[in-house]
Amino acid sequence: MTPEEILKGLYDETLVGNGPKVLDLTQEALGLDMEPQSLLFDALIPSLEEVGARFERGDFFVPEMLIAGRAMAGAMEVLRPLLADTGVETVGKFLMGTVKGDVHDIGKNLVNIMLEGAGFEVIDLGVQVAPETFLAKIEEHQPDIVGFSAFLTTTMPMFKANINALQKAGMRDEVIVMVGGAPVTQEYADAVGADGYAADASGCVRKAKALLKEKRARVSA
């Protein structure tokens, strides 16, 4: 296959979530000495963006997003160390976790895949993440954005507890705070003092990019 055919194949097979084929094409591309960043920016990311657009139009649903995301994640396992070696610039660093008391992670994992697909470096702390763990990991990794996820209405108050902990530690101004999860609304996000909220994974990517752009513009002003 020519490089152009490989890129088109990667785009098409990611779109339909054909993980094994995406992996085969990735290996074939690397065997032809194609640049890892070309595979990422010319095929994989555009494909995931199309998945997000189809989801927003109602043409795709969560299962289609998940299998497309998993197909891309398989390719990223191979490409990640190669991209690190080439020093490819990431969009930003996003630290993510499901709040204390909550063990749900399907939505969070989907958001992580979409963020990584959009060029973010994602640090996933998993589930049941206590405020003190978030603080320690924010200090360790210095992320641009921290994401708090909750699936249960009973764990949503942890958003406020986490934000309070950040304020108490003098770290609130250092990071952008985003919240999300099935029961979360824009009104609730505003009430707890979050910087951003998104109803779904593709919306989260868009919002994260916009918030990061705003913050960087403020800093350079």
Automatic annotation (TrEMBL):
InterPro entries: Cbl-bd_cap, Cobalamin-bd, Cobalamin-bd_sf, Met_Synthase/Corrinoid, Meth_synthase_dom. Residues 1-91 form the B12-binding N-terminal domain. The keyword Transferase applies. One of its GO terms (biological process) is homocysteine metabolic process. SMART domains: B12-binding_2. GO terms for cellular component: cytosol. GO terms for molecular function: cobalamin binding; metal ion binding; methionine synthase activity. PROSITE patterns: B12_BINDING (PS51332), B12_BINDING_NTER (PS51337). The keyword Signal does not apply. Residues 91-221 form the B12-binding domain. Coiled coil: none annotated. Keywords: Cobalt, Metal-binding, Methyltransferase, Transferase. It comes from the Bacteria. Pfam families: B12-binding, B12-binding_2. Belongs to the methylamine corrinoid protein family. This is 5-methyltetrahydrofolate--homocysteine methyltransferase. It comes from Nocardioides scoriae. The lineage of its organism: Bacteria, Bacillati, Actinomycetota, Actinomycetes, Propionibacteriales.
